[in-house]
Amino acid sequence: MVALAGGVGGAKLADGLAGCLEPTSLTIIVNTADDFTHLGLQISPDIDTVTYTLAGLADPERGWGRGDESWAFMETMAALGGPTWFRLGDRDLALHHFRSLRQAQGIPLSSITAEVRESLGVRPSIVPMSDERVRTIVSTDEGELAFQTYFVARKCEPVVKAIRFEGIDAAGPAPGVLESLEAADIVIFCPSNPWVSLDPILAIPAIREQVGRKPVLMISPIISGKTLKGPAAKMYAELGVEPSALAVARHYEELLSGIIIDEVDAHLEETIRSLGIQVKTDQTIMRSRSERVQLVQSLLEFSRSVLMKEDAQ
To answer: In terms of Cα–Cα distance, which of 298, 128, 155 is closest to 217?
Structure first.
């Protein structure tokens, strides 16, 4: 399996997949359009969230950063009057500094990600979508904002008018991305923000083309018109689309073979099925590791059903 992921929801499902599959059977392709330079360091928020989660190091309350963290750096930065809007723990800083040093030596992000993954004992492959620089820019009622400024500094308050991916035209898949997709039996879209976590990955033409050749399953990130974390539902509404699992299915209608929606959205099942997408309802909130594994087991059962139906056709 290949999973496309970004952010906390994507990391949780990736962790569930890692708990159910052999390490050599799983590759996680991660969004890098959230990456940015801060305090002179190269930050890769989605890659780090996925890596920390699979390593068992993620903060269970925040969902991002490390759980075994201290904050002396940020406290000192605040005392000096420096920027503290994007909080970096002391242990987390070591990773960003390591990444920045390696990039200054000319090492590509994909190789650095593999080094970190191996150092932290994570066995499934974690691959950035691209080694080239791509940046999500959010057009708002306050003008254009870099994604982390919109998301963290402005707390998603500005009204979203459009989203673009700066540098996407020059970006190609990172080494290993197309190879993993070609070898995959099935592709999973994790319950990540469609607009700013999954769409940047699929905006790379070679990736979208390869994904389009495979059966694709998805866990809806929208439950009862809302998201557990992040601004996906708000973005849908401000871009003129009613946020729902149905909206997610329509967003990826050309790619999806099947989608798992939460039990509370069972009333949408028939409408989604009318789009030619197979549907399964389940409890999709992952509050614990056992619930992550349980959802993945349901996903694996669903995938076998989808593959059998596609083979029969």
So the answer is: 298
Residue whose pair of structure tokens reads 């490390």 in the numeric block: 66
Alpha helix locations (H) across 239-278? Answer: 245-251, 269-273
- Hey, is 214 helix, strand or coil? coil
- Tens-place pLDDT, residues 136-182: 999 999 999 999 999 999 999 999 999 999 999 999 999 999 999 99
CB-based contacts of 151, cutoff 8 Å, min separation 6: 34, 230, 231
Residues in the chain, how many?
313
Q: CA 245, CA 259: separation in Å to the nearest integer?
A: 9
Single pTM value for the model = 0.96
**Residue 46 neighbours by CB under 8 Å, 6+ apart:** 5, 6, 7, 10, 11, 30, 31, 32, 34, 197
Which residues 6+ apart lie within 8 Å of 33 measured at CB? Answer: 129, 134, 135, 136, 147, 165, 168, 196, 200
Contact by Cβ (8 Å): 173, 154: no
